[in-house]
Design goal:
This protein has helices at 18-22, 37-48, 69-76, 81-86, 110-127, 140-147, 173-180, 188-191; strands spanning 59-65, 91-98, 131-135, 153-162. The protein is of the alpha+beta class. It has a domain at 35-168: NADH Oxidase. The longest helix is centred in the middle third of the chain and has 18 residues, at 110-127. The relative contact order is 0.22. The structure holds flavin mononucleotide (FMN). Flavin mononucleotide binds at residues 24-25, 82, 134-137, 157, 183. Flavin mononucleotide (FMN) is lined by residues 24-25, 82, 134-137, 157, 183.
Length: 196
């Protein structure tokens, strides 16, 4: 399997793990390369073994491979330009938070825990030579209706997963420019509010 390369490694003030520095969110996915089943399983295992408040594990996933009706349904429920680029991803995953326990008690950290699990999923995917791109621009009600998602569950985001494509394959100038634009972050001293 050959994939496009595009080094967008983070510039850090001190070295960090190469998988973390090398992870980024592309919009160009190779439409011809499939993701082996074991790599999808590994990504989901990484999410499964994430930490969560009181080990409540409030993450649930709908996983759809390109070429399935489920994949097409998820694409239909992406907003705006997400629909344009994410259609090429080999796998789309709807990330869902269980907002209450079975007896209806609110799970205060459900979304926090789901986000953390999806972060681990992304890191595992990158470690396995894939790329992941999370999207919050989704049609929540449309996904609910299409997949019969229980009202106690909250679809939060969709992750596009697959092999990196080339920036030139993107359809619009805007997307091509964003794909190669410098990656930026606030400086550390702006993030650390206090450090004793
Ligand atoms: C919760 C969440 C929602 C996001 N929503 C979108 C989205 O709807 N469309 C999109 O193209 N990127 C989306 N992104 C990707 C971010 O724009 C991206 O992670 C950010 O610009 C940093 O870039 P990097 O991941 O390459 O470091 C989202 C990321 C997260 C974590």
């Amino acid at each position: 399997m050959t994939t496009a390369t595009c080094d967008r490694t983070a510039i850090t003030s001190t070295p960090i793990h190469e998988v973390l520095a090398g992870r980024w969110s592309p919009r160009s996915f190779d439409p011809a390369i499939e993701v082996p089943a074991e790599k999808i399983t590994a990504a989901l295992e990484a999410a499964r073994w994430s930490a969560s408040a009181a080990n409540t594990q409030p993450w649930r996933f709908i996983v759809a491979r390109r070429g399935t009706t489920e994949h097409a349904t998820i694409v239909d429920n992406l907003m705006g330009f997400n629909r344009e680029w994410a259609v090429s991803a080999a796998v789309l995953i709807v990330n869902i938070a269980t907002m209450t326990t079975e007896d209806g008690t609110p799970l205060r950290w459900a979304q926090y825990d789901l986000g953390q699990a999806v972060a681990l999923l992304s890191v595992q995917a990158h470690h396995d030579g894939l790329h992941a791109h999370q999207m919050g621009g989704i049609e929540v009600d449309g996904l609910r209706a299409a997949f019969g998602i229980d009202p106690a569950l909250e679809p939060m985001s969709v992750t596009a997963l697959g092999a990196l494509g080339s920036p030139e394959a993107l359809a619009s100038d805007v997307l091509r420019e964003r794909e190669v634009a410098p990656r930026v972050r606030r400086p550390l001293d702006e993030l650390v509010l206090a450090s004793a």
